[in-house]
């Protein structure tokens, strides 16, 4: 049997987090080599969009400064108008850009002892955000209504109600004694960044490599997104609260608002720096766990080569041309053949090994052999030697066992039955590996998202799963599909050994276990095997991408690469 399958293939080196660039001119100064890597992750882009909106919100809110020396009636009408616009801006942002009930994905943190330090903070922020969202949704019509009616005594008490409610909400967010949001955010930041919990999370992700169905980098990235999202929600609530209080005439709050904004920038750029350095040390490898014991299913969880090197009982008298027994089993190590069937002994009762014979050993003189059913991949069910040793699993033998005894010739030479390996590329031996490529459709912006082996017509194919690349390294998961190989037979005309396929044999059955990595800025878009000497060796195709736009750049420039130290 070949000794294994390519151990790791790095799928998508998509997880790039780039520093938020407040000054766009920085981006254009970057060298052309890294230029294509520029781009914000979705959460960073979202924060950018929010900050733009916030500038607009504050411009509106600051109109209140001009209101103070107006008549009371005019002033309260102005207030109502500003409130309506403010509520409208925040409600629309929440509805179109945020998922209010989404409390983030903290599966990875759940595995760390430090989780309980953070859990409460994260929950508090997310819960409170749900309250704010509900407030916006429910009260927006009333704010609109109030802005519409002329300021009269009519509806005055209702207005006061809403005013008190608004102030109460803002003060809870900002000044609650037990859990002010600012302090929650500070604590989250301290634990994740100052105490470098991201590092520990990275180690935790690596130690549970196969159980989430994600690479450690992806796990870490999801964690980052969840936390950044929670922080953004907390920040939005504080800004909204300052704005509310200011409109309600409870103070100026320009400085507080600016201070929070500065804190956000500082925290985010530190967190991003840390993430980038943690990401560099975190593996992008993706593993599927083995199935539970007893749940392996052929052609579903694995495929097998069949009858490649098969146990084979043969008497030494048949393995040389002059019918002698002068050697021992150990003599027959490499590339022998069955030359005849001496006296029609056990050799006449079993299918001949029509290929080469290797690695013979002597186990015991006499034995019982239980043959396998004719359609089976096996040759024998089991062999029981007289000394008690058993090869295979002894069970009921429906076709009956044969007694097979070695013999002495003239008391000098022992004609032993040996236990050997038979390498016979007969029609029941599935031992071919396709050398044709399996690639994603780069014209349609598809990248490789998974790999598997399938067997068709005795031929093993390594095939890719493809999916559509989206901005920020996302994949449209409803586009995922396996690229079905075009099956062919090793016997088809025009199909050549060593070009279209590789034939495994005793000498040509090694598969290299190299790591092959795509270069930074590229994504995986295809795989194929080549033969390197007698080895099978993996090559990958990579295509450059525009991370921000989520597009493959010039598909014609795709590059095939193999392992740089492929001589193992
Ligand atoms: C990537 O795509 C964005 C958006 O389409 C574009 O502005 C940018 O110039 C592209 N970058 C490169 C290096 O092509
Ligand atoms: C609020 O504070 C800002 C900055 O300190 C100042 O420019 C502005 O005039 C203040 N507004 C009022 C109404 O005091
Ligand atoms: C797996 O597929 C091969 C053909 O490729 C077939 O001969 C074999 O019976 C299948 N095994 C199972 C368990 O279905
Ligand atoms: C795609 O992702 C969504 C949300 O994560 C999930 O509910 C859905 O099952 C996924 N679809 C596929 C085909 O994986
Ligand atoms: C890529 O190659 C194809 C055919 O080889 C050609 O038609 C197409 O114009 C090329 N595209 C680019 C972007 O060079």
Would you kindly provide a brief summary of this structure?
This protein has 568 residues and is α+β, with helices and mostly antiparallel strands.
Fraction of residues in helix = 25-40%
Q: Tell me the overall shape.
A: elongated
The number of distinct structural domains comes to 3
Low-confidence spans: 1-37
Task: Report the count of strand segments.
Answer: 19
> Which percent band covers the strand fraction?
15-25%
Q: How do the helices and strands follow one another from N- to C-terminus?
A: HHHHHHHHHHEEEEEEEEEEEEEEEEEEE
Rg for CA atoms: 36 Å
The secondary structure category is alpha+beta
Q: Ligands in the structure?
A: 2-acetamido-2-deoxy-beta-D-glucopyranose
**How far from one another are the termini?**
18 Å
- What is the overall pLDDT average? 85
Biggest sheet record: 5 strands, mixed
Separate helix tally:
10
Describe the structure in your own words.
With 568 residues, this protein is of the alpha+beta class. The chain folds into 3 domains: 42-151 and 159-280; 313-423, no CATH class; 432-562, no CATH class. It is 34% helix and 20% strand. It has helices at residues 24-29, 32-35, 42-61, 72-97, 115-148, 156-175, 181-194, 197-207, 216-247, 254-280, and strands spanning 310-315, 356-361, 366-371, 380-385, 390-392, 402-405, 407-409, 413-415, 417-423, 432-434, 438-439, 446-456, 459-469, 475-482, 501-503, 522-532, 535-546, 551-552, 559-562. The strands form 5 sheets. Strands 10, 12, 13, 14 and 15 form a 5-stranded mixed sheet that branches. Strand 17 and strand 18 (551-552) form a beta hairpin. Helix 5 packs parallel to helix 9. The protein binds 2-acetamido-2-deoxy-beta-D-glucopyranose (5 copies). One 2-acetamido-2-deoxy-beta-D-glucopyranose (NAG) is lined by residues 35-36, 546, 548-549.
């Amino acid at each position: 049997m070949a000794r294994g399958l390519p151990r790791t293939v790095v799928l998508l080196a998509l997880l790039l987090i780039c520093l938020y660039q407040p000054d766009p001119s920085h981006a254009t100064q970057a060298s052309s080599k890294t230029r294509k890597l520029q781009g914000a992750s979705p959460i960073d882009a979202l924060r950018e969009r929010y900050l733009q909106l916030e500038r607009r919100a504050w411009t509106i809110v600051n109109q209140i400064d001009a209101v103070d020396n107006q008549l009371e009636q005019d002033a309260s009408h102005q207030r109502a108008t500003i409130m309506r616009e403010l509520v409208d801006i925040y409600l629309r942002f929440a509805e179109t850009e945020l998922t209010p009930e989404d409390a983030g994905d903290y599966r990875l943190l759940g595995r760390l002892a430090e989780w309980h330090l953070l859990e409460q903070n994260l929950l508090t922020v997310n819960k409170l955000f749900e309250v704010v969202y509900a407030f916006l949704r429910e009260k927006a019509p009333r704010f609109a209504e109030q802005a519409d009616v002329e300021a009269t005594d009519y509806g005055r008490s209702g207005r006061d109600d809403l005013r008190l409610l608004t102030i109460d909400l803002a003060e809870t967010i900002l000044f609650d004694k037990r859990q002010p949001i600012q302090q929650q955010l500070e604590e989250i930041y301290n634990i994740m960044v100052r105490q470098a919990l991201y590092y520990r999370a990275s180690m935790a992700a690596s130690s549970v490599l196969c159980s989430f169905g994600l690479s450690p980098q992806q796990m870490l990235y999801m964690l980052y997104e969840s936390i950044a999202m929670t922080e953004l929600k907390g920040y939005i609530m504080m800004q909204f609260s300052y704005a509310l209080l200011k409109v309600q005439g409870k103070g100026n709050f320009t400085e507080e608002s600016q201070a929070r904004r500065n804190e956000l920038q500082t925290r985010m750029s530190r967190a991003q720096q840390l993430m980038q350095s943690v990401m560099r040390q975190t593996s992008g490898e993706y593993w599927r766990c083995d199935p539970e014991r007893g749940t392996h299913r052929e052609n579903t969880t694995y495929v097998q080569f069949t009858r490649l090197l098969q146990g084979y009982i043969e008497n030494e008298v048949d393995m040389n041309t002059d019918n002698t027994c002068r050697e021992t089993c150990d003599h027959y190590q490499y590339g022998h053949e069955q030359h005849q069937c001496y006296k029609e002994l056990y050799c006449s009762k079993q299918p001949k090994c029509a290929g080469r014979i290797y690695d013979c050993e002597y186990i015991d003189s006499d034995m019982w052999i239980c043959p396998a059913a004719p359609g089976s991949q096996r040759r024998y069910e089991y062999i029981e030697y007289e000394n008690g040793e058993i090869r295979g699993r002894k069970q009921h033998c429906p076709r009956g066992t044969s007694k097979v005894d070695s013999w002495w010739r003239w008391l000098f030479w022992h004609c032993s039955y040996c236990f050997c390996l038979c390498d016979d590329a007969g029609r029941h031996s599935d031992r071919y590996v396709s050398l044709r490529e399996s690639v994603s459709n780069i014209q349609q912006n598809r990248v490789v998202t998974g790999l598997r082996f399938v067997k068709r017509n005795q031929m093993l194919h390594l095939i890719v799963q493809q999916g559509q690349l989206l901005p920020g390294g996302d994949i449209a998961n409803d586009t995922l599909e396996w690229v079905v190989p075009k099956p062919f037979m090793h016997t088809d005309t025009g199909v050549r050994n060593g070009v279209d396929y590789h034939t495994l044999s005793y000498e040509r059955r090694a598969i290299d276990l190299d790591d092959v990595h795509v270069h930074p800025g590229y994504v995986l878009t295809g795989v194929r095997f080549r033969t390197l000497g007698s080895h099978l060796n993996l090559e990958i195709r990579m295509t450059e991408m525009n991370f921000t736009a989520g597009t493959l750049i010039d598909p014609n420039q795709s590059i095939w690469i193999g392992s740089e130290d492929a001589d193992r």
